[in-house]
Amino acid sequence: MNTVQSEPRGARAALPTVPAAGPQAEAEKGPVTTVQAARLVAAREIRVKLRDKTFLFSTLLFLLIAAAATVLPPLLSGGPSTVAATEQSAGPLRAAGLEVRTVPDDRAAEQAVRDDEVDAAVVSGPAVLALDEVPDDVVAALSTRPQVRLLNPDALNPVAAFLVPFVFAFIFYITSQVFGVQIAQSVIEEKQTRIVEILAAAVPVRALLAGKMVAGTVLALGQIVLVALVAVAGMVFGDGGGLLPLLGPAIGWFVPFFLVGFVLVAAMWAAAGALVNRQEDLTGVSTPVQLVVMLPFFAVIFLNDNATAMRILSYLPFSAPTAMPLRLFTGDAPVWEPVVALLLLLVAAGAFLLAGARVYEGALLRTNGRISIRTAWRTRESVS
Amino acid sequence: MSVRRRTAVGGRRTSVTAVTSVLRLDGVDRSFGDRQALKNVSFDVVAGRMTGFVGGNGAGKTTTMRIILGVLAADAGRVTWQGAPLNPQVRRRFGYMPEERGLYPKMSVREQVVYLGRLHGMTAAAASRATEALLERVGLAERGGDLLETLSLGNQQRAQIAAALVHGPEVLVLDEPFSGLDPLAVDTVVGVLRERAAAGAAVLFSSHQLDVVERLCDDLVIIADGVIRAAGDREQLRRTYTSPRFELVVESDAGWLRDQPGVLLVDLDGARAVFDLAPGADEQPVLHAALARGPVRAFRPLAPSLTEIFREVTQ
């Protein structure tokens, strides 16, 4: 039997043992490093996202909101008041830049106010008439202003003090949720379609994770930078530019905090995505992830005038990305504090990244049913 | 039975040592919880040959293939290619078509085939060239720009084949590559795989469609309950595992064959009969007996189908 068989086998041995693609294709193939693979993965993720209509529309919407929020308020607060006055009292009002309507006497002036034709009237006395709101600019035009020296010129106006913390917290919260979910969904898509088996056979699983994280971070940061640019342009254009020098350092610190904080959250989302096999099941595993992002968000919103609480929050990894830039904005943190908080955040993000990667690797190739974190943690399935 | 099996597997082992391009599984075990899915699985996939991997549902085909691709770890045993243990760098030269199909639904066919080529280390230009050629070959050239999800299932399957082949793999592992294909598409895919094998690739494909395997494979691996029941050259297995079978067509009724010594009647339909020979029996006395009774219209050996081999070894 062996002799019969050895003939065709021998003939087969003479076959070229070169790969099917031939030497030419081989020359065009190089070994793929994890970094190169991650770059390819990230490039694909970004390319797909940039063609996604939902993503494009939501970005556009954010830009519109940013523009509206910065441009509209100064416009809506209206121009200078219109004042009805007799010719002899019109001088100082005109000099103050108010729009003066000349009336023959005080009665006509009062009637103009009652008819809502003007915002205010100046009658003899001099007295200022208005319907229901004190016209500050008219009063100022008629008053002698004492000299004012601000001892703390950087102190905040209360509106900004309320709005800015909210905006920072909101941006971090929304962005990390939206892009975190997208990372999870992209992980699930690959599991659900089973393309993950082909991918895992081709490149290290770590490269897949890294690529997704990089893509998510680039997209999230890109969107924020765009929104920030529009907001700054809006402030300059809409005359809210006075806030800029105050916001500058806070924004400058917000970027690194956001970056590292996002990596921390994204690692959790990627791991959560790897634990399930269907998009519908994501909600089940992502609740803890949502909570650890949501609770600090509300804490920062509600406790932002409690110095002790903010001090603690600004060091806790999950709230640091919003709390620390805030404290810098309100000016009650010395320079070493954000550095320490950022280092803490870095360490936490690194730890979560490692843990997330381990869960991701352990769960990614288990494509039947939901996997518990414990199982995923213990599995060291990927042979590569 | 066990003696025969050892002969077939062992004979193969000794005869392939001269060939270096062999994907070899050696004593692979794998359990899921308490269930042992693979028990001491050993077989070879030889370059330049098409190896059919046959077994019932849950027999262990997919588990074996996933272990070859490193998507699943073996509990014991080893897998080697050209004598070297598999690692990610080696596996990158493999092509894989998983059992449950999947590519990116919202990506164009061309784009994802190129992407997979690049992940396997091809340059952008080489990946594009290979993609165009392959799409042309599997009949998808005109659909290349379409999103995968807009394609029919059969066409998605063709895209899947292209995705597995784009980087010119040395080893091709295809899990049920023909399921869900219409006959025309089966022919196309069979043609493509044959070309690859002829060019020197080692091709392992699983299928439960035994007629397709019969048509396509050079070597055969049969698995049942996680145990390799037979492995080796298809004709060799045919000879080893089935008794010689003959067809006889005479002028009138062939019912007398029932009483002919050495004949195990398989099928009798008036003048036509199909029979196996009992061990040690010869077919010539049967022919003589038939001629003695009248004219013989046909007398020929029948190659038993894979189904019979399969039935024989998995009993």
Describe the structure.
Chain A: It comes from Micromonospora avicenniae. Chain A: This is ABC-2 type transport system permease protein. The complex is a heterodimer of chains A (384) and B (315). Chain A is mainly alpha-helical and 384 residues long. Chain A folds into two domains: 2-73 and 157-383, no CATH class; 79-150, no CATH class. Helices cover 69% and strands 4% of the residues of chain A. Chain A contains 16 helices and four strands. A four-stranded mixed beta sheet of chain A has the order 2-1-3-4, with helices on both faces. In chain A, α10 (205-237) runs antiparallel to α11 (244-274), α11 runs antiparallel to α12 and α14 (320-329) runs antiparallel to α15. The longest helix of chain A is centred in the middle third of the chain and has 35 residues, at 158-192. The two termini of chain A are 40 Å apart. With 315 residues, chain B is of the alpha/beta class. Chain B has eleven helices and 14 strands. In chain B, the strands form three sheets. In chain B, strands 6-7-8-3-9-10 form a six-stranded mixed beta sheet, with helices on both faces. Chain B has a four-stranded antiparallel beta sheet with strand order 2-1-4-5, with helices on one face. In chain B, β1 (22-32) and β2 (35-46) form a beta hairpin. In chain B, α4 (109-119) crosses α5 and α4 runs parallel beside α6. Chain B is elongated and about 75 Å long. Chains A and B meet through α1, α2, α3 and α9 of A and α1, α3, β6, α4 and α5 of B.
Backbone shape of chain B:
elongated
Outline of chain A: elongated
Quick one: CATH class of the largest domain in chain B?
Alpha Beta
Percent of sequence in beta strands of chain B: 25-35%
Biggest sheet descriptor of chain A:
4 strands, mixed
Average pLDDT, all residues of chain A: 78
Give the helix/strand class of chain B: alpha/beta
Stated plainly, the CATH topology of the largest domain in chain B is called Rossmann fold
The pair of chains with the biggest contact is: A-B, 50 and 65 residues
Mean pLDDT of chain B: 86
